[in-house]
Amino acid sequence: MINFAENQFKDVVIYPRVSSDDQQERETIQSQIEFAIKYCELHGLNITDWYKDDGISGTIPLDERPEGKRLLEDAKAGKIKTVLIYNMKRLGRKARITLDAIYQLEEYGVTIKSMTEPFDTSTPMGRFVITLLAGQAEFDRDTLLETLWHGANRVARLGQWLGGIVPYGYQVIDKFLQINEEPLPGKEDLSEAAVIRLMYHLVGHEKWSTVQVADYFNSLKIPPSYVKDGRKIKKGKRKVNTAGVWTPGRIRNMIVSTTYKGIHVYGKRSKKDRELIKREVPAIVSEDQWNKAQQALRDNQIEAFRNQNRDNLLRSLIKCGSCGLTYHGASYAGSGRKPTAYYICGGKTVYRGPLQGKCQSKNIPAEWIDNMVWEECVRFILNPGDAIKEMNSGMEIRKSKVGEYLSEKEMVQKSIDDKQTERQDILSLYRLKMITALDVEKQLQEIMSETATLENRLHELDLLINAENDMSKDFKTAEELLYDLRMKIIAGNNAPSFSTRREIVKTLVHEIIVDTIPSPTGGRPKASVNVKYAFNKTVPADIAFAKGKNHTVVRAVITAVITPISAARAALHELLNTALEYQGP
Questions:
Q1: Cβ pair 177, 166 in contact under 8 A
Q2: What local confidence, expressed as pLDDT, does residue 422 receive?
Q3: Model-level pTM?
């Protein structure tokens, strides 16, 4: 038994601590406090202060804990002679952290005593026992965590939700994730799952940026998950309330989350290296919708890139068959020569993608491939053949979107009406002198900004609805739509503007894959280009590149591809002239 007979041990302070790991062992800070009170009454000790670290991990050094830091400051000031702890684990769950804490306190002349273990730091034997107990505490913690991890992994493989923040759009029912279709507070016609579907529609179908979506959701007063659940976030080591707004980063993270297409990865948020477990959950959006949203994010990023010297007709459409990244425009100029425009793989400029190091893909002459793809698009517009059936199917899908636009329009209009009510409420509070004029001005400015965003969206929806209705009225079939495209080409005297050509190309070209093929003789590789069109046609082309004496080979290979296109150009002019007299189907 520890002897407290000497006077210097009459005044003591108590240091209790628990963390989530300790709570797994059914330990609470209150149980330590009650034990300390009874212990000091039994031994006739006077408690002068408490230093309670509640919910603080034992792996954090003592001087970085809120109350641990205050304990060290008071010890340095000479206010403390003896510190009582429930057991060695209260100082730390790592041997190094425990021994460092003891060393820091002993430097200020403080003795550490355990109320449940037979040691104190005032004797050599006590210091030796401390070393053993510190190692035992670390071993116990590591063993407990390993047991918990194995158990958690087993349950995770069964698909159960193991706690933590539930993804927006879901709720936990009987330990499993389920789609949350319950109305949001103040939004009887909108659920979390509906918000997710709207988000993917705006990004994937309407090609909105994450900034636009965030502004739109904020204007609609759609509550983010933190606000809806009344949760707080960590800022530093303290939890604080959030601003309660949607941010572009939050939108982007939700768009790229595989959870919404039905695949949740357990363990990826862990700070430690652990097994990642994929499990199926109910999907809110289809895989096709999810993929379209990913493509839209990539396209938005690429569209932001601007080549100051040249408009790149095929930007965001060319993909590398080697590393999967997107080609972008660039220009190169040799000594005394004019710059030549190329499309180059993004993997050639930085170390990324599945390849080790930079991608070794070939550059593609921009003028050559632009002309080839554009002329193929024109050829299809003039002579679509059997592919017209696919376009008719696509137009039917677009017509079905009108109902979704009308539902969203109704929701937006209701939100605009609610803004007027909010404005009257603020003015009423001002008349009652419950808020200041400065508060009124700030709130009214926010309402005006949100209303403007909603009105802009309302205008966009009207345009979309009118456009679809006009297309249904003006173009009942794909043949009629193609006839309109023919007229656009003719209106530009066979040379339409870049914006017109860009619009047509994005409509008709699905993607362009560039495969770089090594030379079997060890020479320079060549590029194989496959253009996949929306009308279910693939046009292959091989391009070889060389220098010096091999220039004739280069011309021969490229000419072999260009020749039929040049012949098509002559036929094209004849067809265009004929189309001038064509009055449509």
A1: yes
A2: 85
A3: 0.43
